[in-house]
Amino acid sequence: MNKTMSRKLILGIQHVLAMFGATVLVPALTGLNTSITLICAGLGTLLFHLVTKRKVPVFLGSSFAFMGGIMAVIGDSRAGDPDFLEKLASLKGALIVAGLVYAVFALIIKLVGYEKVNKVLPPIVTGPVIIVIGLRLSSSAINNAFYVNGDFNLKAVFVTVCVLATVVAVSIFAKGIFNLMPILFAIIVGYLVSYFMGFCDFEAVKTAHFFSFMDAGIRDQLLCVPTFKAHAILSIAPIALVTMVEHVGDITTNSAVTGQNFMVDPGVHRTLLGDGLATALAGLLGGPANTTYGENTGVLAVTKNYDPSIIRIAAVFAILLGIFGKVGAVITSIPGPVIGGISIVLYGMISSVGVRIIVNERLNFGNSRNLMIAAIILVLGIGCDSIPIAGTVSISGLALSAIVGIVMAQILPESEDSVLKD
User: Quick one: CA dihedral 317, 323, 326, 330, positive or negative?
Assistant: First the structure.
């Protein structure tokens, strides 16, 4: 194996480790199957890359935005319960419809043109929204980093400090290929320290099947035929209208990190279509809805390697983790403080990209219009968890802040001093 391929494999593993915690958390909370979820994430990512001409370095993992809708359909039913497969069939159908909602809007954007989309998403909106994307995730990073079973833990703090120190040291002082692997090195160091601190639990590794499909329950869930029931569709499909706004924010962030405008080439209509088809595929197989992952954008920002083929390698690894239960269980055993330490860096990098957009666009925050738009986006985006709309449908604080920011940017008149002059 040549050096280039070896490097890509290592970088691909980093992306898998970055997405793993969040991706498996959704099925853990909703009762869906973790192995199927990993397979759906990998296949969905490959499908997304096919639709976007293999140009966009994005990984698709489990969407938290759909959790409320999923739980409304599944309820307390879990694998093995008499009614679980019936409820899963309804969820499958609803997720397929949600994916088709993406496809419809992708077609609309294709017909009206990107310019009109770009006009409603000026830098004064996208910059603060990207800052919100990172900061909204920060509380989960801190909880993992400093707390164990809800209690503040000094040993966890020590592990987190070791992880952060490794990321910083490798990013700044390492040379050559090692400079591209700060996340991987940090996880290895954190795992070793966690082992001696007593945080490692290998019970899941012992009990996992070597091949996931040896479990008859997983086979039944994969072969469960989707049904299209109104109550399930109404609980799930409208959420797609909200997550599409988040999708645009994620693609904008990815574009800012890589220095390429993916909103134009291959086009936001293609990225939306890819996201929607990935969600429909996940629905067909029995996984949660997929979405573009900020964690992996954070890895791009840290490593400065934007090769989309590395993301596809990560997608193949995700599929293999779903197939080989023992391997996936090893990654599941990575302790919370290690994941928390890595997340602090990744989520912070995302917010920093938002700051970079504001600086690069020379936005003047002495201008009242800019100040008001940014202020309201930040407070709504960070302060609001979710706002109920109707029944089980809710809108996330991120989507709410983006919508309010877009409306304000269109209504409030722009003055000559909104941008700093040379």
Answer: positive
